[in-house]
Write a structure and sequence with these properties.
eight-stranded antiparallel β-barrel, 9 strands, mainly beta, elongated
Length: 193
């Protein structure tokens, strides 16, 4: 499971964009090559929300909620410090989002569940970004660990398809937690005699 706090940094006239929540879930994978170095990845389905405040032409702003349905796959380097029952990891590397669907709702009418528009045709639905964060892992059983962590993400790909010089990039702070099942998550070096 994971949760996120998302925003899009977009400069377009008098319009503004406000952070909102996100959530999702999926499968996490990790392969340690030795006691300190490995790869951390996941395949998750996420729903992220952004609030657009659009100028209505009279000086007032109308709030629209944008809901994006996405698949995320990061490929992160895992630099780990381990004990027999605890692991602390630094995570760093590229991450990829594929936006499946993007809906816009008037913020006040979002409870009706009826979208006012499909925004996918205006978006770059394949996003490439960078991630950095930390992970804490606690051994809770012979072959199971509880993990919790967080990463900051910034996407280099423009979110909005525009031919002008506007800056439209997605960024988020994402937290995650779950249970992992392992065969040898804390490898040890062989004893030298």
């Amino acid at each position: 499971a994971n949760g996120s706090y998302n925003n899009a940094y977009i400069t377009r006239g008098k319009d503004s964009y406000v952070s909102d929540y996100g959530y999702g879930g999926g499968f996490f994978f990790e392969k340690m090559f030795n006691n300190t170095l490995g790869i951390h990845s996941n395949l998750t389905f996420n729903i992220i929300n952004i609030v657009m405040q659009i100028d209505d032409g009279t000086g007032s702003k109308i709030d629209y909620a944008v809901k994006n349905y996405m698949i995320q796959v990061p490929m992160l380097l895992n630099i780990s410090l381990n004990t027999s029952s605890f692991s602390f990891s630094f995570l760093l590397g590229p991450t990829f989002y594929y936006i499946i669907q993007s809906e816009m709702y008037a913020k006040d009418a979002a409870a009706t569940g009826v979208p006012e528009g499909d925004l996918l045709r205006y978006m770059q639905y394949f996003q490439v970004g960078g991630s950095a964060g930390v992970q804490f892992k606690f051994r809770v059983g012979m072959f199971t660990d509880f993990f919790i962590g967080g990463v900051g993400e910034f996407y280099f790909t423009k979110l909005v398809k525009e031919k002008d010089d506007s800056f439209s990039n997605l960024y988020s702070i994402r937290t995650f937690a779950g249970i992992s099942f392992r065969t040898n998550i804390f490898p040890t070096r062989p004893k030298v005699e």
